[in-house]
């Protein structure tokens, strides 16, 4: 599975302002940013990301998925630690 395919699935399902997907084989990392995460628990945020990818997880196309989900204001604070320039 290509990272672009994951990006497409997530963008179609969720209202995201920023999305970063890295990985290869069946192991991927997702950073998702959107107002939809406002007030959501960490578990709820992960469930929101997993849902559009459930078929790919079930068929083994995605074996491991690391998720970081932020609101835009959280991302402004966190991005300097996660994506140093």
Structural account:
- The protein is of the alpha+beta class and 85 residues long.
- It contains four helices and three strands; from the N terminus they run αββααβα.
- It has helices at residues 3-13, 42-50, 54-58, 72-82, and strands spanning 18-24, 27-33, 64-70.
- It has a three-stranded mixed sheet.
- The longest helix is centred in the first third of the chain and has 11 residues, at 3-13.
- The model has no long low-confidence stretch (mean pLDDT 94).
Layout: helices, strands, pairs:
Blueprint: H1 3-13, E1 18-24, E2 27-33, H2 42-50, H3 54-58, E3 64-70, H4 72-82
Parallel strand pairs: 2-3
Antiparallel strand pairs: 1-2
Keywords:
single chain, 3-stranded mixed β-sheet, 25% strand, 3 strands, 85 residues, globular, alpha+beta, 42% helix
Summarize the structure.
With 85 residues, the chain is an alpha+beta fold. The protein has 4 helices and 3 strands, in the order αββααβα.
Instruction: Say how many strands there are.
Output: 3
Helix content: 40-55%
Report the major sheet.
3 strands, mixed
Structural class by secondary-structure content: alpha+beta
Ends: how far apart?
Answer: 28 Å
